[in-house]
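Hello again, I could really use a second opinion on something today. For a while now I've been wondering how a particular protein folds. Please have a think about how the structure follows from the sequence. Here's the protein in full, and shout if anything looks odd to you:

***
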Amino acid sequence: MRRLVSFVFVLSLAAMSTPASAQSTAKSSPPPSAQSVGAYGYASFGSMRFAASDSFELVTGSSSQAGFGIGGGVTRLWRGVFADVSFWQHKPDGERVFVDNGTTYPLGIPVRITLRPIDLIGGWKIEAKSIQPYVGGGVTFMSYKEESDFAVGSDNVDEQKTGGVFLAGVDVPLGRYIRVGGEYRYRAVTGVLGEGGVSAVLGEDQLGGSTFAVRASVGR
């Protein structure tokens, strides 16, 4: 009988200690969201300041242009490593011009310009509770179209070139799955501008430039 009482007493102690050890393990273990790979999507709105600022200023009347982007990616591939893909569009309109000895002559021919970069980026993000900075770099695939009525010869342009892109930004969580923030992108692409027209006269061969944007993302 005494052995049975002793055995029951030992089992009771073991049962009481098990929840405490489980709670201790739960407290020391990070939440599942901090361990597993996450995914997100976002929408952005910002303005690109063109690297060929003088050329765009003469043709469109401005060295920058507003645009929008959509994208998404995966996070925590290994610790803070993330992969991101995005599609952007900027559509400035202007007028064809002729430059002679520093004098600009408007030709009265409307021109429609479309820039559509696709960015593939890898980087590192610090997922803190309040502010989440990130930085990365990769490749951009730039589609550039320049169209106008009454085009002659090579006046219209339709080119796709590859270049580099740098990204830096910060997210601020508004909840478990929603974040807002701002970012900076710089794209460098050659082989489109500088071969003819105004950009050749001004000696500007860089297509791309600096983009400052705000973005809202959903995911974990």
Notes: The CA atoms of residues 2 and 148 lie 101 Å apart. The helical segments are 2-28, 32-35, 53-60, 197-202. Residues 47-219 form a domain with the Porin fold (CATH 2.40.160.20). The chain has a mean pLDDT of 84.
